[in-house]
Design goal:
The chain has 182 residues and is an alpha+beta fold. It folds into two domains: 57 residues, no CATH class; 116 residues, Jelly Rolls (Sandwich), CATH 2.60.120.
């Protein structure tokens, strides 16, 4: 006589439960696997917390600055350099995005990265206004290190008054420059 299907299933379940009741090893994941999984999850959680903390530190160290009026040029062949206005403070870098040269009527205004004196060699030239308007730079195209600043200079055919400003700049703490550049 053949047993019912229910009886056959009950017998299989009883066979599987028997090793657990007698202390024999049970097939499947053991306690060690769960311990390793828990330890790995703990490491992943710590890495995620460290990454969030790093991003928060970077956010506090990288900030946009409002427009900075630098000054005016009113005569031909004049240089305007203002280290306190046209460059980063000690311990910081600047990434300049937008320069403004407004209201002059003729000639040109050149923009130089400072070379430490009143005369600026052409290799420090970073831009020039041939008429009133803006100069735009992408990320990391015009970076100033601590101690550097912009110098504006009019050419010999300059006429009018040039109002000069750094219209958009990001200030970056020196320690955060690598994060900013990534």
């Amino acid at each position: 006589m053949q047993a019912s299907r229910t009886d056959a299933g009950a017998a299989l379940l009883a066979e599987q439960a028997a090793p657990a009741l007698t202390g024999a090893s049970v097939p499947g994941p053991g306690l060690q696997v769960f311990a390793e999984l828990s330890a790995n999850l703990g490491r992943v959680a710590q890495l995620m917390q460290d990454d969030v903390a790093r991003k928060q530190r970077a956010w506090r160290q990288i900030r946009p600055l409002a427009g900075i009026p630098v000054g005016q040029i009113t005569a031909a062949s004049t240089l305007l350099g203002s280290p306190e206005l046209a460059g980063p403070r000690s311990g910081f870098w600047w990434d300049i995005h937008l320069l403004l040269g407004a209201t002059f009527t003729g000639g040109a205004v050149n923009v130089y990265r400072s070379a430490g004196g009143l005369t600026q060699p052409d290799l420090n030239l970073v831009g020039g206004f041939t008429s009133s308007g803006y100069l735009t730079y992408g990320k990391a195209q015009l970076m100033l290190a601590p101690g550097q600043y912009l110098v504006f200079g009019s050419n010999s055919t300059f006429t009018g008054t040039a109002n000069l400003a750094i219209a958009s700049v990001t200030e970056i703490a020196a320690a955060a420059v690598p994060d900013y550049l990534l």
